[in-house]
Amino acid sequence: AADNTSRQDDQAEIGRSDSDLKPLLLVLSGLGGPAAMRKLLGLINENFAKIIVVSHEIDAPQLPKLRDQLQKITKIPMLLPVMDEFLKNGNIYILNMKQTIQSTSLGYQCIAGQSLSGFILKMDHDVDIAVLSGADELLSQPLIQANSLLSNIHVQAPDECFEPALAQLLVNIGAPLLDNDVLEHWFN
């Protein structure tokens, strides 16, 4: 009986740690974004226990190559999630253009969808967003609204972007630039 109780306690502890929502960093990028992502990934502490979701404007067949290229920079596992997969702490996920995420009582989940706008409009205080070069301009309105409510969006300096349209728009409405203090807070 003691073994049974011990096993149940262990399972309860595992269940609690898996279902606790850890802060999530959503990275939006596209043309010119991989260089900025390499810089970001190089700053991550190897004990990183949060979740990073990358939405990069790239065709699905090219995602494995992008993942392999970025995996050389960090020891944090970089994964291509499948539909309905729950995201686990300590991983980096790269979405394809037909995937989005949702927040559930069990954690963050990868689901089918053409846009992250629904997630952005409903996101909680545990989510931060980094907008890099080439991010999808169709996300401008949800990002503007989220920035006014939560102030959790940070933008790559437009003059450092290969494709600065969304970054410039967000800076123009007061979104702060992505700087080393913010990166230290996220990654260490």
Overview of this structure, please?
Helix content is 37%, strand content 21%. By secondary structure, the chain is an alpha/beta fold. The strands form two sheets. It has a six-stranded parallel beta sheet, with helices on both faces. Strand 1, helix 2 and strand 2 (51-56) form a beta-alpha-beta unit. It is globular. Residues 2-22 have low confidence and may be disordered.
The low-pLDDT segments are 2-22
Q: How would you characterize the largest beta sheet?
A: 6 strands, parallel
Strand-residue fraction?
A: 15-25%
Number of helices: 7
Q: What is the N-to-C succession of helices and strands?
A: HEHEHEEEEHEHEHH
Average residue-wise pLDDT = 85
Q: What does the overall shape look like?
A: globular
Helix percentage range: 25-40%
Alpha-carbon Rg, integer: 17 Å
First-last Cα distance: 42 Å
Structural class category: alpha/beta
| Sheet with the most strands: spatial strand order | 3-4-2-1-7-8
Tally of strands: 8
Note the topology.
Elements: H1 2-19, E1 24-29, H2 33-42, E2 51-56, H3 63-71, E3 78-79, E4 91-95, E5 99-104, E6 107-112, H4 117-122, E7 127-131, H5 140-150, E8 153-155, H6 165-172, H7 180-187
Parallel strand pairs: 1-2, 1-7, 2-4, 3-4, 7-8
Antiparallel strand pairs: 5-6
Give a quick summary of the entry:
By secondary structure, the protein is α/β, with parallel strands linked by helices. It contains seven helices and eight strands.
Structural features:
188 residues, alpha/beta, six-stranded parallel sheet, two-stranded antiparallel ribbon, 7 helices, 8 strands, 37% helix, disordered N terminus
